[in-house]
Structures are given as C-alpha cells and as structure tokens.
Amino acid sequence: MQAPIHRYRTGEGLTQANDELAVEEPLEIRIAGKAVSVTMRTPGEGDHRALHDTELAAGFLLSEGIIASAADLDRIEPCGRTQADVNVLNVFLTPGCTFDPQSLIRHVFASSSCGLCGKATLDAIHQQFPPVYAQAPVTTDVLLGLTHTLAKHQATFDRTGGLHAAGLFDRTGKLLVTREDIGRHNAVDKVIGHALQAGWATDDHILWVSGRASFEIMQKALAARIPLITAVSAPSSLAVEFAHDSGQTLIGFLREGRMNIYAGAQRVTTPQN
Length: 273
Known about the structure:
alpha/beta; four-stranded mixed β-sheet; 30% strand
C-alpha cells in the first residue's frame, strides 16, 4: 500500500514522496468456530488473498500437530463477507479427526516458565514429529544458487523492503513455491500449506528462509518432513540443537558463494571436477 512520507537525501533536503509499505493484518484461525490462533500476516494480493490465507492455515495446523495430512482437512473457508470476516478463517476437520486445544504446541511454549529451553518440551515435540532419515543429497553448487533464484521471485520485497520470504526447492535447485509475509514463520507456514494441499512428498526437498533460522522454523520443517533447511542469516543455538536431534541438515549464512553447515553435513556433497 502507498503512504505519503517526507524523504531526506543529502544534497536534496526534505522532499515529499510516496512509499510502498508491506501490508500487515490479523488473521484469526478457527476450528469449527473455536478460535485457536491469531497471527499478524501479509495477505495475498487480489485473487491470491484467499489462496495464501488457506495455505497459511493449513501449514499452521500441520506444524502444530493438529492435522497429520491433507486428508484430515474437510474445508477451509472465510467466516463471512465483510472485511473483518475476511480476516477470519474457519477450518472444518474430517469426521474422526479430533482436536484437543490443550495439545497445541504454541500453548505448551507459552505456558513454559523458561520458554523454549526445556528438554521436556523438545522431547514432546520429537514424540509427535519423529526425526527424518531421508538421505536427500544435494550439491554445494545447487545450494549456492538458491538465494539468487529466490531473489528473482520476491516481488513485494522489491517494492517494500519489509517482508520475509520462504521457498521450497527440489534437490536440483528448482523452485517449486515461494511465499512472502511480514512474519518469517507465516511465510514458512504458507509454503508448507501449499505443499500439503498439493500432495507433495517433501522428504527430499529444501526449505529456504530469509533472515535467521529459529527453533520454530526447524520444528515446522520437521512437521512437514523436510530434511534440509537453509537460511540467509545465522541459526539460533536451539535451532542447531534441534537439527542434530531431528536428523535435519541446517545451513546458515547461505549467500555470496559461502555457507556454514551446522548440522547434517552428510547430505551436502561437492561436485566432482
């Protein structure tokens, strides 16, 4: 969206201009009318709004362990026709798929006195999402090309400079889907939700994220069974610990011909000369 600003440049002083801002709006996710989450997100533009919100909801439900597959989803629909209702999605699960609000992983995190540092919390997550064992080897040449490929598809970032992005690639470096959002976690949920609804097997895929790799990014990737996660910036200590425990490959500082492999180096190969 456009916003009037005063811009200062050396030699030019103050001038009036318009600037493009990243849109941020709340999205409430309900299950059969019961609110389970409110997240601040960037809605898709135009006809993509409903699609991206549906992907976000599906990815969120998968990464929180509420659903195990696309078969658990009956339908996802907006609650009404007003602008406020557009920002509320109602999810209906298939018969036989039960939902316990107390089981929400985010609820466990929020009620933990030490945040995400408890070993019991990590053990609980691994009981729900077991480690990944897929080999999914990938070459350094492929990995080094991911950031450049994704940059060409960040249209909203180019206009605003204010969005995170996530992308899902195959082992050859082919970009399968990319999404942008004001929140990095939301961008990942959208990508995961798209893969879930498309019925893709992601056990040999690569998740790319802008910014840093956090514990929650790793947990979401594990829920989607993605073995290899790359980030433009640094990972957190808990993200590295989680990657080792989960059998995941975690790569940080993936840019400008370099990378750091923090876990799962056995999946990364160097092309033969």
